[in-house]
Amino acid sequence: MIKVGISHGDINGIGYEVILKTLSDARMLELCTPVIYGSAKVAAYHKKALDIQNVSLNVVNGAQSAANNKVNIINCVDEEIKVELSKSTQIAGDAAFSALKRAVADLRDGLIDVLVTAPINKNNIQSEQFKFPGHTEYIQEIAGAGKNALMILATENLRVALVTGHIPLSEVSKVLTVDKIVSKLKDFNDSLIADFAITKPRVAVLSLNPHAGEEGLLGKEEQEIIIPAMQEAEKQGILCFGPYPADGFFGSGTFEKFDGILAMYHDQGLTPFKTLAMETGVNYTAGLPVIRTSPDHGTAYDIAGKNVASEESFRNALYMGVDVFHNRKQHRENVKNPLKKQYFERGSDNEKLDLSSE
Q1: Cα 190–155–99 angle (5° rounding)?
Q2: Distance, CA of 141 to CA of 342 (rounded, Å)
Q3: Is 321 exposed, middle or buried (0-12, 13-18, 19+ CB in 10 A)?
């Protein structure tokens, strides 16, 4: 059974609500063995506050002891921890990091197969041990094995990846290079094939400037960086198209024709994505040897404890993590022993035909 680790995120937000609502469906235990990294005491507090009765927690010392057909939980924080719903506190930040630290270490060491992270507060989690813009950068550092992460926001039919992530908008044009875009296109293409089981993905590339720069009138990055990067990627067998101005691309529905969309910066990709798929979207960390997903929303302090948060995005994150695990396994099998060329003789002219697969 696949072991799915779940880090509890910020204890004062909706993390436990979406976790418990998702796991209250008994069918989840047929899909995987969940292992929550958090606090049994805090989980019990949220269960009572939300009146969630049909989730029983099995406290274990480590992922190795997680039992199938049970919702397991590992205590990662001080038993005296205090929950203050809807508030950003240092205690909540420390608790979020303690759970994340252990979960990522277990993910790196193969003790769990997938990690689904509940939302953190990027401010209160900061400390001497955590000086990262978010989950993605931390997981890359600890469990990335030297590889670079690629953030993909995904639903069943829409996948948006970013060339640049959590950096100021004023810095975007300064860090865009041909090599960087080619690298992101390659990682995106590889992920679409191995993680999402798309044989020949078609990737749309967005422009940086309005109207794709208007041939240099509104900016030269398209002519000097983005188009040369696409040309280089095409030489490597990647099917990429564009660059498309983001407004018309999404407004006209052109995005529906592609398997993936590469945006130049955070809000360019995430604003239309969340408009189209806020309730169902998943944040997937591609490019790394480990599998991590997350719901496409934050701590939502404004509705914490009110029992109105939707668990749909979190549930989809769990589903996607399991799907990626199976897709990667199948992809490894497919490429492990490629078919060797075979020949047979036809007719008296001794003509040999190549029957190898393309």
Answers
A1: 85
A2: 45
A3: buried
- Give the pLDDT confidence score for residue 355 in this predicted structure: 42
Cα dihedral 217/218/221/226 (nearest 10) = -90
Cα separation, 78 vs 60, in Å, equals 15
Domain boundaries, the chain: 1-149+288-337, 150-277
| 3-state DSSP assignment of residue 137 | helix
Amino acid of residue 90: Q
pLDDT digits (tens, 9 = 90+) for 120-179: 999 999 999 999 999 999 999 999 999 999 999 999 899 999 999 888 999 999 999 999
Burial 92-126 (b: 16+ CB within 10 A, else e): bbbbbbbbbbbbbebbbeebbbbbbbbbbbbebbe
Tokens coding 301? 């302090």
Proportion of the chain above pLDDT 70, given as a percent = 94
Q: Residue 108 is inside which H or E element, if any?
A: helix 90-108
Rounded CA separation 324/254 (Å): 26
The model's pLDDT over 56-94, given as tens digits with 9 standing for 90+, comes to 999 999 999 999 999 999 999 987 899 999 999 999 999
CA dist 309 and 50 (Å) reads: 11
Residue 352 pLDDT > 60: no
> pTM of the full predicted structure?
0.90
Q: Which fold has domain 150-277?
A: Isopropylmalate Dehydrogenase (3.40.718)
Number of neighbours of residue 64 by Cβ within 10 angstroms: 11
Other beta carbons within 10 angstroms of residue 256's beta carbon come to 9
Please list, in sequence order, all residues whose beta carbon lies within 8 angstroms of the beta carbon of residue 332, skipping any fewer than 6 positions away: none
* Domain 1-149+288-337 fold: Isopropylmalate Dehydrogenase (3.40.718)
CA 312/CA 21 separation, integer angstroms: 9
- Tell me the average pLDDT across 296-305: 95
Domains 1-149+288-337 and 150-277 share a fold: yes
DSSP E strands in the chain: the ranges are 3-7, 33-38, 57-60, 71-75, 114-117, 150-154, 159-162, 202-206, 239-244, 260-263, 282-286, 292-295, 343-346, 351-354
Identity at 4, one-letter amino acid code: V
Helix axes 312-336, 178-194, angle to 10 degrees: 90
